[in-house]
Amino acid sequence: MKIQEYQAHEIFRKYGIPSVRGxxxxxxxxxxxxxxKTGSQRVVIKAQVLSGGRGKAGGVALASDSAQVESLAGKxxxxxxxELDVKKILVVPAVEIASxxxxxxxxxxxxxxxxxxxxxxxxxxxxxxxxxxxxxxNKISIFPFVGIPEFLAxxxxxxxxxxxxxxxxxxxxxxxxxxxxxxxxxxxxxxNPLVITKEGEVIALDAKVNFDENALYRxxxxxxxxxxxxxxxxxxxxxxxxxxxxxxxxxxxxxxxxAGLAMTTMDLVNLYGGxxxxxxxxxxxxxxxxxxxxxxxxxxxxxxxxxxxxxxxGITRCDDVARGLTEAFNGINTDIPVVVxxxxxxxxxxxRILEGSRFHxxxxxRDAINMVIxxxxxxxxx
Length: 382
Ligand code: GDP
Ligand code: MN
Prior knowledge:
Layout: H1 5-14, E1 23-25, H2 28-38, E2 43-48, E3 60-63, H3 66-77, E4 80-81, E5 84-85, E6 88-93, E7 97-108, E8 113-119, H4 126-132, E9 137-142, H5 150-157, H6 164-183, E10 186-197, E11 202-204, E12 208-211, H7 220-223, H8 230-240, E13 244-247, E14 252-256, H9 259-271, E15 278-281, H10 288-299, E16 306-313, H11 318-331, E17 338-344, H12 347-354, E18 360-361, H13 365-378
Parallel strand pairs: 14-16, 16-17, 17-18
Antiparallel strand pairs: 1-6, 2-3, 2-6, 4-5, 7-8, 7-10, 8-9, 10-11, 10-12, 13-15
Helix pairs in contact: 2-3, 5-6, 10-11, 11-12
């Protein structure tokens, strides 16, 4: 689970990590008011979206008078960054940067530990640094029963800084950041850039915290911060209907029962040259109402140009699925092509119900997938 930068800054503040206090705004008028309140001549206006690379996308900008605040706030509030609408911006007093660094903690599965990552090449694309100059990235695995004693924090900070005052300030930030990671069950905490200001202070200019969703049950304060984006909202809604649904970028909507068959179906769609629009496991129960919900879910994605229903009837009965499909499509005005492969319990009854209907019936998985890829290619759905 991700949170917005301003929320991450609030957590940083609670733990005593130095940063600059900004004001969250949802309109140009609020931004102008915030600009006055900061009392700073120069401010930075920052898009609050759940995605990185805001700077590169033009979502972070400096303003030095109210006319600039007005025009930049208006521009950024109207932006889309990686498909996400910018609805909030942060107005922060600008800092004079002397140098920029990178600091994070992340769960590293290969070492089965939390790893601290430090680099003197902060502020820019850290992935690029990792590819081009990996020697500029330092990694320290943290032994969980030991954590980060002061000596280790200072050793790590001295990989970034030479001045002892900076090392001491950096070590302090490192230990606090690790405490956030552990206390709040975070999967990532990141400061990029961590900066030394012209005045010689070490502060977090950006703040990012991701959380392990499996631990939300014991982190009610974290769970309360969730602001699901439209995609996540859909996934949560699907969950409430008893589905596992994950949105993908392709054009073939898949409706499958069982996680294993759903993954196999996605793999085969890709193998035969198509692209799945989702992973959707409608689960094991034979309930036609569920099929109706699943069809609505698939059709709510306009990228879906054809639907593949792949059902193996074990507990789920094929005749129930067939009735559910008929009912669902009777109630929805769409001419989207639908390929159905039904096999297993009550297969014959299922096929009888679908005979002569709008559905394309396939006998084998190979036929079904080839059919749906061809139909998706010809589909005129907008
Ligand atoms: P990101 O692109 O989403 O990671 O957003 P950041 O908050 O990291 O900002 C991107 C870049 O904008 C930083 O690396 C800085 O170089 C610059 N920036 C952000 N805040 C300030 C500031 O207060 N003063 C100055 N001079 N630059 C800033
Ligand atoms: Mn950043």
